[in-house]
Amino acid sequence: MPVGIRASGARRGNLPLTADINVTSLVDVAFVLLIIFMIAAPMMQGGVDVQLPRAAARPLSMKAGLVITVDRTGQVFVDKDRMSFAEFRSGIRSIIARRKPSGVYLRGDRGAAYGDVVRVLAAIREAGVADVGLVAEEEPRR
Q1: 3-class secondary structure, 134
Q2: Cβ atoms within 10 A of the Cβ of 105, count?
Q3: Where are the domains of the chain?
Q4: DSSP letter string, 105-140
Q5: Which of 94, 116, 93, 91 minimizes the C-alpha distance to 106?
Q6: Which is it for strands 81-83 and 76-78: parallel, antiparallel or unpaired?
Q7: pLDDT tens digits for the chain (142 residues)?
Q8: At 16, is the secondary structure helix, strand, or coil?
Q9: CB neighbours of 114 closer than 8 A, spacing ≥ 6?
Q10: Any residues with CB less than 8 A from the CB of 84 and at least 6 apart, and which?
Q11: Buried b or exposed e, range 42-79, using 16+ CB within 10 angstroms
């Protein structure tokens, strides 16, 4: 065996190995993720998720859901049971917990005050329902 070589194959005169981490690529990835989140964050903010009725609306099937209706006088109906807004607001959480509906659908009369429909929608959302379907009739075609 030659004099300057160890059995493992390394020479005695070499510099020791360093265990430094190259953080350049790590910083690049962090900046790219920061930019992506800065662009995506405003898009994720939202309020009440509603879709306004369109002229050619598809009918919404309400098979096993809970149907809540607001008539033009502001009365609230859960399926066919009539109640005032105060009764509805205090009892909606227990109704949802008891029935466990697959969907909640809100029907508002065309002549109902916008504020009445929004108050009912807010009470439903406050009860823990994230998705509320707004039901509209299909507009007749000309």
Answers
A1: strand
A2: 17
A3: 66-135
A4: EEEE-TTS-HHHHHHHHHHHHHTT---EEEE-PPPP
A5: 116
A6: antiparallel
A7: 455 555 555 556 677 777 777 788 888 999 999 999 888 877 765 433 333 344 355 555 556 678 888 887 888 888 888 888 888 888 888 888 888 887 888 888 877 888 888 899 999 888 888 888 777 766 666 6
A8: coil
A9: none
A10: 75, 76
A11: eeeeeeeeeeeeeeeeeeeebeebbbbbbeeebbbebe
Strands (E) located in 38-130: 66-70, 76-78, 81-83, 104-108
Alpha-carbon span 112 to 104, nearest angstrom = 19
Please report, in angstroms and rounded to a whole number, the separation of the first and last CA atoms in the chain: 99
Which residue matches tokens 């190995």?
A: 17
- Which class is 66-135 in CATH? alpha beta
- Please check whether residue 76 is in contact with residue 119, taking contact to mean a CB–CB distance below 8 angstroms: no
Tokens of 47: 């309020």
